[in-house]
Specification:
transmembrane helix; mainly alpha; transmembrane
């Protein structure tokens, strides 16, 4: 396996001459995410505002997260969890499509990025069902492991990190839809001995994350493609891929 520096260098080489299209590809889900957030938050703010106007006591109760029966707290928790799962799912679908594009570029299967189509690759059949099922199954497994302690959940998240790449490879290579649990299991085996390296690879981007935050998030338009390209290079450099599948 190559070092983090070597993988990042390969990512930069992939992005050379393609930065504009890569940023545009990343911009599309960003704009969609903002629009969805606005659609959800504006009515919610209006409802909360109405509650504040007509019942200050109720507003205090909502802000505390409970009412006399505990209903508000329960509803808020369910809403937060549901919103988090939906947000994570949408992010995973978009990221999968972009990551597959960089994987194809890395392997020399294509030269150009087509932002308007590549960003929606994972929304197309039969990829969508696979990405959704793998995400939901992984989320359940990671959640169960996290019940034991936080660390096992984090470790398992790295174990399952390559499942969508594996699903894509099998489907593209054979034309057959692989089993979702099969992809998760293959990822776990593929990452045996490499979870720590992927963890350190993630840590190596901390400085860039700080700079992106300091730009009010605008820097992520460039940082995210850099990360996705690096992760694609990481996956492709994992040894014995064919044996794992």
């Amino acid at each position: 396996m190559k070092s983090s520096g070597e993988l990042k260098l390969e990512a930069k080489q992939m992005l050379q001459g393609r930065w504009k299209d890569a940023v545009l590809m990343n911009l599309i889900p960003t704009v969609i995410g903002i629009a969805i957030a606005a659609i959800i938050l504006i009515p919610l703010i209006a409802i909360i505002g109405g509650v504040a106007i007509f019942s200050p006591d109720t507003l205090d109760t909502v802000s505390n997260g409970i009412n006399s029966n505990g209903d508000v707290s329960w509803t808020a928790q369910i809403g937060n969890q549901g919103g988090g799962i939906l947000s994570g799912l949408l992010t995973t679908i978009f990221v999968s499509g972009m990551s597959w594009t960089f994987l194809d570029i890395y392997r020399g299967k294509r030269v150009d990025i087509h932002p308007l189509s590549d960003v929606f690759r994972a929304f197309k059949s039969p990829f969508l069902v696979g990405v959704v099922c793998i995400y939901l199954l992984s989320t359940i497994f990671i959640g169960l492991w996290s019940l034991l302690f936080l660390i096992p959940g984090i470790i398992k998240s790295y174990s399952y990190a390559q499942a969508n790449f594996i699903y894509y490879d099998i489907l593209e290579g054979t034309g057959q839809k692989p089993g979702y649990l099969e992809c998760i299991t293959a990822s776990r085996r593929l990452m045996n001995g490499y979870k720590g390296q992927l963890f350190w690879l993630d840590l190596s981007f901390i400085g860039w994350h700080i700079l992106a935050v300091l730009t009010c998030g605008i820097g992520y338009l460039w940082l995210n493609p850099y990360i996705y390209a690096t992760k694609a290079a990481f996956y492709n450099n994992l040894p014995n891929e064919a044996e794992t599948f």
